[in-house]
Amino acid sequence: MKTLILMTTILAACSHSPTVTSTKHVANASVTQPAAIPAPTAELAGRRAQLIGWLHDYQVAGVYPSDALGMPRSVFVDEKGVRCPMAELIWRSGHTDLVEAVAKENNEVRLADVKDGPLWDWMVGSGLTVDEIAMVQGAMEWSMNWQERETEMILAESRGQVRGRLEVAERALRDGTARSLEVAATRLPNGRIPVAKVTGAVLPVAALKSKAPVAATPVARIYPRVRFSGAN
After folding, report:
1. pLDDT at position 21, please?
2. What's the rounded Cα separation, in Å, for the pair 43 and 24?
């Protein structure tokens, strides 16, 4: 009888195999799959990267809107057709009609004052934040403590200041991409990128009166011509 009980116990123990968890299953469970990037955010990221690249090209070229004296001028498009940095980015994105309309309606518009309309639609879909757009446009708002100096020196300093601001803006855009895309995505109406379509006026009424800061007029030193004795 004891022998029968012992054999029954041994058989029962052998028939119960311990549960073995698949190593592969555990490994897969421990790996967190990266969250998929929403399509609109991915598109914003692509547009943003393209704009930053174009801004770099613009900064390197060093050709900015200027006045009759050759001083940098904060307008959308100057008399020679040279575009400001933001107008250049909008133009390169294929919206020539938008650039032309803005220049016609208010060539000194501050983009920070634009809150609706097709220009706003472009801004919302650019992948840049409003603050970043204002920063890029603001690179043209240079200033100096004027003293009497040679005209060439004034020109060099003013252009150098604009270029320096554009370099800072480009670096800030690259460094702030992750956070800025989050902000830009929250502005999308119904989670979709709007289409910037020109069908009439592009600037809201409030932006028609916005102007660039008034820059001081430079005073160039004029050196009299010296006539040496014996000269003809």
Report:
1. 44
2. 36
